[in-house]
C-alpha cells in the first residue's frame, strides 16, 4: 500500500493512535501526530511512499505534538518526541512539518550505525550515482532539485548511505529541502507543482520541500554504484570550472563530511577507501545551472565501467 491509498480520515485516525509505518527507503519510521495540518502535509509530500498500518519493526518512532494540553490553544507550539526524547526546542504549530523533517534527519544521524553516512546529496542515473558532499549554503540542494527535474534519480538530499559490505549506495529519497531564493529557482525551472507550501520564519529563513516522484520512488529499494564524487560550489557570475581533486585530499574531505566515521572505525576507513579509489572526483564551480547539469551528465556517462566491482 502507498500512503495516498489511505482515506484522509483513516490516516488522521492512525496518526493520532498507533501511527503509520512509513517506508523511506533505507529506514522505516513510525509517525504519530494529532496536528491535523501536519497530517495533510505528510499525505501530500509522502503520497507515493509505501506505508504499513500494522505493527512492524521500525528504525525510528517520531511523534509531533504540543508540549502540554494548553499549547493546543495558547501559543500553539509543538515538539518532536523521538523515543520519548525531545532534542529540539518547541516550534510554532505552523512549522510542524519542517520540525518533522529535522527530527528524521536527527534520527538518521544519531541512531544509525549499520551504514557509513556522509552529509551529502546523492543523485543517480541507471545503476550509477554521484555523491555531492557539501556544507550548507553551497547550492547542494538546489542542484539536487534541478537534477531531479532533469530526470536524475534522487537517492537522498541529506545523507549518502554507504553499505560497508560492498560500498553501494542505499536510497532514502525524502523531499528535498529548499531555502529562500532556491524556492523560486526550482519553481521557475518547472518544479512548482512538486513544491510544498512555503514555511516562513524558520532559523534558515523560508523553506519549501520538493516532492519525490518517478524512478526515485519506483527504485526505492534498489542500490547504486558510486561513480562520481563532486564537490559543488555555486558562485554567482563564475565561469564553469571542473577541476580534478587529488585522492588524498578527497579522502580527508569525505571524512569531514562523515557523520559516523569514528563510530564505524575500520569499516568506515575501508568503505571510504573503496569510494575514493573507484570514483572520479572533481571540484565543480558554476553559476549557470543548465551548464552544470550538462557537465554532470557528461561526467557520469564517462565513468569507467570497470569500476563497477566495488567489493573487489
Structure overview:
The chain has 312 residues and is of the alpha+beta class. It folds into two domains: 3-111, no CATH class; 115-308, no CATH class. It is built from ten helices and 17 strands. The protein has helices at 8-16, 36-45, 96-111, 140-149, 181-191, 215-218, 247-257, 261-264, 266-278, 289-301; strands spanning 20-23, 28-33, 51-52, 60-65, 77-82, 91-92, 115-125, 128-133, 153-156, 159-163, 169-170, 176-179, 199-202, 205-210, 225-234, 241-244, 280-286. Strands 7, 8, 9, 10, 11, 15, 16 and 17 form an eight-stranded mixed β-sheet that branches. A six-stranded mixed β-sheet has the order 3-1-2-4-5-6. Helix 4 packs parallel to helix 5 (181-191) and helix 7 (247-257) crosses helix 9 (266-278). The two termini are 38 Å apart.
Number of helices: 10
| Quaternary structure classification | single chain
Determine the structural class based on helices, strands and strand pairing: alpha+beta
Largest sheet: 8 strands, mixed
Shape: globular
Distance between the termini: 38 Å
Mean pLDDT: 93
The fraction of residues in strands falls at: 25-35%
The percentage helix is: 25-40%
* Radius of gyration computed on alpha carbons: 19 Å
Please write the string of helix (H) and strand (E) elements. Answer: HEEHEEEEHEEHEEEEHEEHEEHHHEH
- Overall domain count: 2
| DSSP summary, beta strand count | 17
The low-confidence runs, each spanning 5 or more residues with pLDDT under 50, are 305-312
